[in-house]
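Exercise 7b. C-alpha cells:
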C-alpha cells in the first residue's frame, strides 16, 4: 500500500471495504483511515459471505483493544485472515492465548529475547547485514524488498538453530501465512495457502525437535533452549508447544523486519534530505527506526473478539463480535503524531508508535527487531552516499501486512576519504 498518501479525496464511509485487496496492493487506505478516525471511529462491515467485523482506527481505541484481554480475547484468533474460523491453536500458540496462560507460554522465550540478552548478538548481526548489503555495492540494480524477505532468516536462523539450507523455504512458508492472497505466494485458494503453510511450518519444527532429541544433541539456540524448559508443574514442553513457539518467532521476525526495512528505505529515497540528515549524524538512527516503524506499520492490524458487549469508539461491539484494530491508522493518528503523513526522523514521540502492539501481547521480539533495524540503517548510511529508485515498487497484496514484494534500487557507494 502507499505509505505516502496521495491527494485527499472524499470517502463514503458507508461504502468502505477494508477487505478490498486492491486498496492495499495498488490503492491508498490512508484517506479511508483518516475519514474513519474523524467520522466513524467504530466501523461495522459485513462481507458478502456474511462474516462481519468491527474496526477501530484511533490510537487510544487500538491500544485498548490490543491491551485489554478481559474485554477483548485473543483465544479465537488474532489475524483477519482467520475471520470466521476459530484458531485451533488457541491456548497454546503464544499469539492466541490470554493471560494468565499467555505468560506461561511466553516465559520460556522472554528471558532470551530481552534487550540485555540480545545485545550480545549485535556484532554477529552487523556482519550479517554487511554480507546482505555487499551485492548492492557494485552499483547494479538491487531489489531491496525481494532480498529483505531473507534478512530475518539470516539473523534469526542461527539464533533458532535452523540451518542455512532451510532458510529460503521457511521464508516462503511464512510469507504464505502472512500474505496468502499475494500471487507470489498463493497456492490455490487463500484458505488452502494458509493451511499448507501452517502445516509445513509446524511439521518442520516438530521434525527439527524430534531429530535433536533422538540424537541427544545439546545446543545454545532458542529451539534447544525450549527443549529444556519446564512448566511450573515440572513437565517439559511437548513437541507441539515447541513447534508453535518456533512458528510464532518465525512469523514475527518475517513480518516486521523485512517490510520495515524496505518501507523505511523507500521513505528515505522519497525524502533525500532525511537521508542526508541521518548520514551526517548516526545518533539519529534509533529515532529513524521508530519513525520507520510508525511510517510502515508492517503488521497493519490485529484482531480480537469482544468477550461481552463493549462500548468503544462511540458505539457498541456485541459479545462475540470480531474487532480489527488498525495499527496503520493508529500510527497516523494526528492527536498523537502531529502532521502524521510527514516522514520525520527527528519526530518527538516517535517511540509511541504502535507497531509492536500493546500489553501482554507486546511483540516479544521487539528488542531484536529494533537492534536489527538500527544496525541495518547504520550500515546502509555508512556504505552509501545515496540510494535511488530503479523501477516501480510493487506492493504486497494483503490487508494484514503492509509491505512490498519488489523495490529495485541503485546505491551510490560512499567514497572513502
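Sequence design result:
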Amino acid at each position: 500500500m502507499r505509505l505516502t498518501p496521495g491527494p485527499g479525496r472524499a470517502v463514503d464511509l458507508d461504502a468502505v471495504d477494508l477487505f478490498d485487496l486492491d486498496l492495499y496492493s495498488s490503492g491508498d487506505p490512508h484517506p479511508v483511515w483518516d475519514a474513519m478516525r474523524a467520522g466513524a471511529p467504530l466501523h461495522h462491515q459485513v462481507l458478502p459471505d456474511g462474516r462481519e467485523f468491527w474496526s477501530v482506527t484511533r490510537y487510544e481505541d487500538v491500544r485498548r483493544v490490543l491491551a485489554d484481554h478481559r474485554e477483548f480475547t485473543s483465544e479465537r484468533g488474532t489475524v483477519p485472515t482467520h475471520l470466521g474460523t476459530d484458531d485451533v491453536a488457541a491456548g497454546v500458540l503464544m499469539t492466541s492465548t490470554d493471560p494468565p496462560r499467555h505468560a506461561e507460554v511466553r516465559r520460556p522465550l522472554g528471558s532470551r529475547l530481552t534487550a540485555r540478552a540480545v545485545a550480545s548478538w549485535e556484532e554477529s548481526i552487523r556482519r550479517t547485514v554487511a554480507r546482505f548489503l555487499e551485492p548492492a555495492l557494485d552499483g547494479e540494480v538491487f531489489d531491496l524488498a525481494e532480498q529483505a524477505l531473507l534478512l530475518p532468516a539470516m539473523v534469526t536462523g542461527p539464533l533458532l538453530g535452523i540451518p542455512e539450507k532451510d532458510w529460503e523455504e521457511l521464508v516462503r512458508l511464512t510469507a504464505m501465512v502472512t500474505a496468502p492472497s499475494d500471487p507470489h505466494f498463493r497456492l490455490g485458494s487463500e484458505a488452502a495457502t494458509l493451511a499448507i503453510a501452517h502445516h509445513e511450518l509446524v511439521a518442520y519444527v516438530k521434525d527439527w525437535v524430534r531429530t535433536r532429541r533422538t540424537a541427544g544433541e545439546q545446543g545454545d539456540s532458542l529451539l534447544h533452549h525450549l527443549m529444556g524448559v519446564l512448566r511450573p508443574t515440572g513437565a517439559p514442553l511437548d513437541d507441539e508447544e515447541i513447534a508453535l513457539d518456533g512458528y510464532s518467532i518465525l512469523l514475527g521476525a518475517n513480518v516486521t523486519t523485512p517490510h520495515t526495512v524496505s518501507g523505511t528505505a523507500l521513505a528515505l529515497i522519497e525524502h533525500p534530505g532525511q537521508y542526508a540528515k541521518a548520514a551526517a549524524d548516526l545518533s539519529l538512527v534509533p529515532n529513524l527506526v521508530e519513525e520507520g516503524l510508525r511510517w510502515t506499520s508492517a503488521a497493519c492490524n490485529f484482531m480480537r473478539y469482544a468477550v461481552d458487549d463493549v462500548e468503544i469508539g462511540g458505539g457498541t461491539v456485541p459479545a462475540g463480535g470480531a474487532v480489527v484494530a488498525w495499527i496503520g491508522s493508529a500510527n497516523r493518528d494526528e492527536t498523537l503524531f502531529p502532521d502524521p503523513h510527514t516522514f520525520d526522523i527527528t519526530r518527538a514521540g516517535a517511540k509511541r508508535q504502535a507497531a509492536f502492539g500493546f500489553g501482554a501481547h507486546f511483540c516479544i521480539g521487539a528488542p531484536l527487531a529494533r537492534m536489527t533495524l538500527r544496525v541495518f540503517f547504520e550500515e546502509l548510511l555508512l556504505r552509501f552516499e545515496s540510494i535511488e529508485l530503479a523501477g516501480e515498487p510493487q506492493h504486497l497484496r494483503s490487508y494484514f501486512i503492509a509491505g512490498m514484494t519488489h523495490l529495485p534500487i541503485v546505491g551510490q557507494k560512499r567514497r572513502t576519504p
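Instructor comment: The chain is about 45% helix and 10% strand. The mean pLDDT is 92.
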